[in-house]
Amino acid sequence: MQTEKAIQVRALEKVYKEGFWRSNKPSLKNVTFDVPVGQIFGFLGANGAGKTTTIKIALGLQSATSGEVRIFGKSSESAEARTRIGFLPERPYFHLNLNADEFLNFHRRLYGDPQPGKIRPSNELLLKEVGLADVGGRLLRNFSKGMLQRVGLAQALINDPDLVILDEPMSGLDPVGRREVRNLMVELNRKGKTVFFSSHILSDIESICQQIAFLEKGELKYCGKIEDLVEQGSREYEILFRLEGAKKTELAQLGIVQDLGKLMRLSVQGENEARRATEKLWSMGAQVQSFSPVHRSLEDILFGEKGGLSDAIGTLRNRV
Amino acid sequence: MLSVLFGIAFNSWKQMVRDRIFYVVLLMACLMLGFSYLLATLTIVESRKILLDFGFSAVSLASAATAIYIGIVSMAREIEQRTIYSVVSKPISRSVYLLGKFLGSLAVLAVTHFLLSLNIAAILLLMGEAVPAGFTSCLFLVFLESVILLAFAFLCSAFTSSMLAAGFTTAFFLIGRSNPSFKMMATKALTEGTRAVATALYYVTPNLERYNIRDVVAYERPYPAEMIPIGVLYALAYVAICLAASCLLLRRRDLP
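^ inputs. structure came back:
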């Protein structure tokens, strides 16, 4: 049985006209991926990679040059699809002359009557959920950037959405705020909501996402589970050993050597190379203390020089 | 849909009446009216006419400035500051958003204009003068003129930046006020080409002078009664065209 998709992005292309001569500047190049229902899905990429453009097209803020985005199987342009989405823009620019209650009431009214079976949360509950209890009467003009981000999150949840789209939700938040937003996303997911969020902060994505899509210069480089990516590619191994009177030049041929004082550390790429290096160390009379693969973070894979994304994707393709 | 439309209009109203710059514009208008009172009290003869002349002009300029400011802030600034994002990403059409914004802005403009008109009436009473015949008609026509400006500011805001939209609307206002001169140019033109250009300009540009009976009322001369219904129809047509074009442009526009 095919899994239901919250978002389907199909052959999406966006070309902007720029400059005096209106020359073409492609922002998205044939981007295709799916976001399954019920997941926390991370949308990764450096600034200018095309994340926000994809989100804007999904929400009808911009039109695609070609391709389409479907939300729960419906055109993203349709009111039916929009009713099921909650959205937090990248920068929380809101109507600053309203107080938090008025702001939420206004956004609540934009959704019309609730869908059958849906109960829209009250302002108090929403504000409490985003850590802004007791500020309902304060003008947004007097809010800090972090508070605006939180009240923006509250408006994104006002229709009890099935899909929450958050564009850089952690930007402008302090570490405590970031942690709270992460927890909120996990909590929303636990309640059965699909959470799709963009970020260039890899640790945030790695800690909560089940799947990711990675964009680079408008092209989709990877879409899938994080663990599939992390487990693939040539891995780095770390060998800790003790060796009296070791010749550094000889050791340097085996890999990258670091003197840790009583111990020495040898870093080697690939399991076979690591085994060969260990045997060599033994033959040199070294006491090998440990031999272990080094945990690679998402950052190492996506932006590391060795064993990077192309290596990992290559291995995944070979396996398929 | 009506609930959403009025929700947007009410939000737009609240936004505007809490805007500090809006009160600066109002204060300037009151100062201009105060100046006309001062001028009238310093004049030995015709003080009533001077007060009405300056007062009407002050209200006219203040209403025009308010219409341009409100129009730009309601639309162009919403797009530039991206406050529009969280609204049009909801299940509402951009046309409903634009019309709601226009209704809210219209309400603010109407209340501002009413307060300024009351201001002149109060000054007249303060000076022990009676309100002249045609006083309400004159101020109503000034209001219609500012509604046309508001709609034009919305039209410009739908496709360009706030600075350019303000510039275009101000140019529209100045050209509209000079529209009858194009007709005069056409009659006095020496060549066929100049006559054709002047005639074309006369018909293409709006005639905002049809909303000007300020001198006539100040000097208590009669004015054609049909000016009011014709002015209403002309304004309705202009506003409808501007709003329809704004909706089309905004629907096609990629938000920044």
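The mean pLDDT of chain A is 86. The interface with chain B takes residues 56, 59-63, 79-80, 82-83, 85, 87-89, 91, 93-95, 97-98, 102, 106-107, 109-112, 139, 152, 155 of chain A (CB under 8 Å).
thumbs up if we can close this ticket
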